[in-house]
Design brief:
The protein has helices spanning 12-23, 54-63, 129-138, 174-188, 208-217, 269-275, 317-337, and strands spanning 5-8, 29-31, 46-47, 52-53, 69-71, 76-81, 86-90, 95-98, 100-103, 107-109, 126-128, 151-158, 193-198, 222-225, 228-233, 239-245, 250-256, 258-263, 265-267, 305-307. By secondary structure, it is of the alpha/beta class. The chain has two domains: 5-106 and 268-337, FAD/NAD(P)-binding domain; 112-265, 3-Layer(bba) Sandwich (FAD/NAD(P)-binding domain). The chain is elongated, with a radius of gyration of 21 Å. It starts with a strand and ends with a helix.
Length: 338
C-alpha cells in the first residue's frame, strides 16, 4: 500500500512495528539517529530469563525489515502539522508527508553520576549495569577482570523510586537485570562473593521468580534488603559499602572489587524534543502520555500519532514487542478508516 508511515526510532519497538506493517502490506520509513539499528537491545549481551543472546533478537527483528526505507545517522529537524497529515523534515534533507507517525523513541538510562553518594565517576571500581553489559558483550573494560574478583556488589533502584532523583516510578527491569548480571558474574568468577542490595524485589514476570531462586540456590548470590548509605574507597582501590540490613536489623559493611549500579529507565530527552514539535503531551513522569493507560496505550491525543515501547514508560522486551505489534494493527485500522 502506498502510504507513508514514519517510525521514529529503530530499536526493538520500531523494528517489530515495521516488520508487522510490512506484513500488512505497507512500506514503513524508519528514522534512527544512531548509525545502527537495535537501540539499547543492540548494546546488551543476553536477555533474562532465558539468557537469549540479544544479538539473535536484533538480527531477527532487523531481518524482517529489509523492505523498509531505513535512514540511520538521521534526526528529525522539525515536524509541521498540516490539515490531515504531517510534514517530517529529516537532517539528511529528506522531507516526508505522512498521515501516520509512530514514536518508538525508547528511554534513556539514569545518569548514575547524579547519585554522588554511590561514587560513579569518582571511584574507578564503580560501574553501571550498562557498563557491565558492555563488558559481557565485548570484554572491553579495564576495570573488570584486571584484578582478581573476590567480591562484587549490585545496588538496585539507582535513580528509580527516588523522589530526590526526580523519578518516583519503578523501572521494572532493574531487579531482574541485577539477578541476571549477578549470575553471569558468578559464572565468570565462581569463587567470588556476589551481593545484591535491594529495597524489595519485584519479580513479576514469567520465570522471574525461578531465576531469582536459582541465583540464590545454584549460584550463592546473597540478597541484602536495605539501602546503601555510603560508598567509599580504601587505600587498595577497593570499594567499601555500608548498608543497613533491614531484615537482620543490623548494619552491614563489605569490601568489594567491583560495585555495579542498576541505573533505571528515565524518559528520553529526544522523545520530548520531537514531541514538542507537534506538540504532544508528556505525563507526570516525563514519558510521552498515551490517550489512556488501559485501552489506548499505543494512541496519543493527536490524530495519526501512535506510540510503542518505552517512550511511554519502562517496559520489558516482551512487553515492548507486544506493544509494537498492537501499534501496527492500530495504525492499519486507522488508515483503513480514513
Amino acid at each position: 500500500m502506498k502510504e507513508n508511515i514514519v517510525i521514529i526510532g529503530g530499536g526493538a519497538a520500531g523494528l517489530e512495528a515495521a516488520g508487522q506493517l510490512i506484513r500488512l502490506g505497507y512500506s514503513p520509513i524508519i528514522v534512527e539517529k544512531e548509525d545502527h539499528l537495535g537501540g539499547h537491545l543492540a548494546e546488551w549481551h543476553c536477555l533474562f530469563p532465558d539468557m537469549t543472546p540479544a544479538s539473535d533478537i536484533v538480527g531477527r527483528l532487523a531481518g524482517a525489515v529489509s523492505d523498509a526505507n531505513i535512514f540511520t545517522n538521521t534526526e528529525i529537524l522539525f515536524i509541521n502539522h498540516l490539515k490531515d497529515s504531517y510534514n517530517v523534515m529529516l537532517s539528511n534533507g529528506v522531507s516526508i508527508i505522512a498521515r501516520v507517525i509512530l514514536f518508538t523513541t525508547g528511554f534513556r538510562l539514569f545518569d548514575a553520576a547524579r547519585k554522588e553518594e554511590y561514587g560513579y565517576g569518582i571511584y574507578n571500581q564503580v560501574i553501571t549495569n550498562s557498563d557491565l553489559e558492555h563488558w559481557f558483550r565485548t570484554g572491553d573494560d579495564d576495570r573488570i577482570g584486571s584484578v582478581p574478583m573476590e567480591a562484587v556488589g549490585f545496588v538496585h533502584c539507582v535513580g528509580s523510586r527516588d523522589e530526590k532523583a526526580g523519578n518516583a516510578q519503578c523501572s521494572k527491569v532493574c531487579c531482574i537485570t541485577a539477578v541476571k548480571q549477578a549470575i553471569e558474574m558468578k559464572k565468570r568468577f565462581p569463587d567470588a562473593m556476589v551481593y545484591c542490595f535491594y529495597m524489595d524485589l519485584r519479580m513479576f514476570g514469567k520465570k522471574y521468580e525461578d531465576f531469582y531462586i536459582s541465583a540464590q540456590r545454584d549460584y550463592g548470590v546473597r540478597f541484602i534488603r536495605g539501602r546503601v548509605s555510603e560508598v567509599s574507597e580504601n587505600i587498595e582501590g577497593k570499594v567499601v559499602v555500608k548498608a543497613e540490613d533491614t531484615l537482620a536489623g543490623k548494619p552491614v559493611r563489605v569490601t568489594l572489587d567491583l560495585l555495579v549500579l542498576m541505573a533505571g529507565m528515565v524518559c528520553n530527552p529526544d522523545s520530548t524534543k520531537v514531541a514538542s514539535m507537534i506538540p504532544l503531551q508528556t505525563d507526570s513522569d516525563g514519558f510521552l502520555k498515551s490517550k489512556d493507560n488501559i485501552l489506548e496505550i499505543t494512541s496519543s491525543s493527536r490524530k495519526g500519532i501512535f506510540y510503542a515501547g518505552a517512550c511511554t514508560g519502562p517496559k520489558t522486551v516482551p512487553e515492548t514487542l507486544a506493544e509494537a505489534r498492537s501499534a501496527a494493527l492500530d495504525i492499519h485500522n486507522f488508515i483503513e478508516s480514513l
